[in-house]
Design goal:
homodimer; about 300 residues; alpha/beta; 8-stranded parallel barrel; 13 helices; about 45% helix; globular
């Protein structure tokens, strides 16, 4: 079961964090950023940057999260960089989370799922164009919009993280509002997610169908953890968004229970005074190690 | 204002419907479908099929809706077909709705918006890789996740349709549930959407920030129309999903108020007995005309 293998890898690396490859040209070192005159250039230098980061991080982090928005903005060429980055990370033994937040009605959700978790059938063959271990999903459309992803998780040993409580400041605008059963929307969403993943629970008790729970909302994260011991969390919001290791400790029990994302702090570590003079990949590695220590001291 | 120009075009074509280009290889005629052995082949024949449909439909429908899931499933090559289809439709005077249902925290929503509505800044230039008039957006993350799209709507005269009440069978699972103010989630979402679009209302009173409201849920559509006279609707669910022209009449006043999507019934019209012997593009044209008549007789 995928979630067991991810947890085993988290234990092996002693690192419950994931490096977010939200790479845009602004994050590239001056000497390559200045060469990005076309979408093709941008995609090329972003890919090179990502490959170097994967090389530097592959024995430090168990997984990478690749945010597709930062590749879509570079068009078709950007989508090639996205695809190549996912493939390179997988080849180097990292778990991959494609952060795509896809959502639609059943038939269309099936098409999305083909792209990432299932397969696209062609004449005489079948392919998974953006093959990923996990993707993120938005559950606003309810069960029949999520089922195609869950079916592919079962068939191909994949996983999803469904948005429950997001890390952004407006995350509570709808998600924290109480519903007819006296529970907030995020809790009603968490209950659905728990049900969708029931058949995908592994040896540690966690399901390959997990939840996105932001590090920036401690009380809500604690409530979700308490009510849903089987939900494994993808935890954004640490670092640049203001979430602290101390806040997200509530997501864990005995050191497991979630994986914490950091993007900007790792990608642009080379610009920080404490890493002055280091190459971007070496700085990223040191930042990832510092993040691991910061989180581990709070969750253990 | 974009929404005014769309309404003018709806009046000019006397057609409040949009052709959904949810093209996958299964919908292609046998002679091209059988040639789709690689993603490259699939993208090529899908593009050819779409171009022929646009040629056949350009004086019948005011707009096309391109569902990105059916292009993502063909990978990078599929995204090229998506991009080329959007560009070809725009070149031929059709309004374009990229049905992408994107959603994320503010900084990431900005990256998505660059791809479709804004622009991606490069060294010495800026481009909009998947330029579209409108995109669809999922509002689960609240105001700060939608604001970057709305800002680009203001800056570049674009539009969005935010998911309010979706057409799928499970659409009500969360969306119909009552919240703390005694109103269902979809109504709370509609109120937010109405507010986001306040500064983008045009001469007909409708905003370029509209709502996705399914044709399959008549009572809810009627309630949203009554409470939100400024929301223009993108209406999926007609035809293959079971929505009838009679049901969606509640979305319109004096013949305007929304645009109704049909995908499969147009794309695969050539397989229907009544269009036997017609080429796929000619059959699609006849099906689009039949849809126009069917809807007009109910909304006028």
């Amino acid at each position: 079961m995928l979630i067991d293998r991810l947890i085993d890898k988290i234990k092996e690396t002693d690192n419950p964090s994931v490096a977010g490859l939200d790479t845009c040209v602004d994050y590239l070192p001056d000497e390559t950023r200045e060469k990005c005159e076309t979408l093709y250039d941008a995609a090329k230098y972003i890919t090179d940057f990502n490959f170097a980061l994967i090389d530097a991080l592959k024995d430090v982090v168990p997984a990478v999260k690749v945010q597709v928005a930062y590749y879509e903005m570079y068009g078709v060429e950007g989508m090639r960089a996205f695809s190549d980055t996912l493939a390179y990370a997988r080849q180097h033994g990292l778990f991959t989370i494609a952060d795509v937040k896809r959502n639609d009605i059943g038939s269309t959700a099936s098409a999305y799922s083909n792209a990432y978790l299932g397969e696209t059938v062609l004449e005489g063959s079948a392919v998974t164009p953006f093959e990923s271990d996990f993707i993120t999903v938005n559950g606003y459309l309810g069960t029949d919009g999520v089922k195609p992803f869950v079916e592919d998780c079962k068939k191909n040993d994949r996983g999803i993280f469904v948005l429950v409580k997001t890390s952004n400041p407006s995350g509570g605008e709808l998600q924290d509002r109480l519903m007819d059963n006296g529970k907030p929307l995020y809790e009603n969403m968490a209950e659905l997610v728990d049900g969708w993943g029931e058949a995908l629970r592994g040896k540690y008790g966690y399901s390959s169908v997990g939840a996105v729970v932001g590090a920036t909302h401690r009380a809500q994260a604690e409530a979700i953890r308490k009510a849903h011991p089987h939900l494994f969390f993808l935890i954004p919001g640490y670092g640049a968004q203001g979430g602290k290791a101390d806040d997200l400790a509530v997501c864990f029990r005995d050191g497991i229970g979630g994986i914490v994302n950091s993007s900007r702090a790792i990608l642009t570590a080379y610009r920080k005074p404490q890493y002055a003079g280091k190459a971007f990949d070496e700085a990223a590695r040191l930042a990832a190690i510092a993040m691991r220590e910061d989180i581990n001291k709070c969750i253990k």
